[in-house]
Design a protein that fits this description.
mainly alpha; elongated
């Protein structure tokens, strides 16, 4: 999977190499408009869900991460399709 390369590449003064930092895929995932409610719906939980166990909390965060990276992957695909026109 193409991760989009570095999101914010930079070069430290006096350094000859470029520091890559986070990938564009990670940045897109962090910006994804995914809520706890979205993740709860994917889990099949009711709107008034309560996270009473460690297992439920772990499941919620894992599903949120999955949804965010699905969003990021879709953004990268769209970017690669439209990218030919922007260069």
């Amino acid at each position: 999977m193409d991760d989009g390369g570095p999101a914010f590449p930079h070069q430290d003064s006096g350094d000859t190499g470029t520091r890559s930092g986070m990938t564009l895929r990670d940045w897109f995932a962090g910006q994804a408009p995914v809520t706890m409610g979205d993740a709860a719906r994917v889990c099949g939980w009711p709107p008034e869900f309560n996270l009473t166990t460690d297992s439920e909390r772990a499941t919620l965060w894992a599903v949120m991460a999955m949804l965010r990276y699905e969003y990021a992957d879709a953004m990268l695909v769209e970017r690669s399709i439209k990218g030919d026109d922007n260069g």
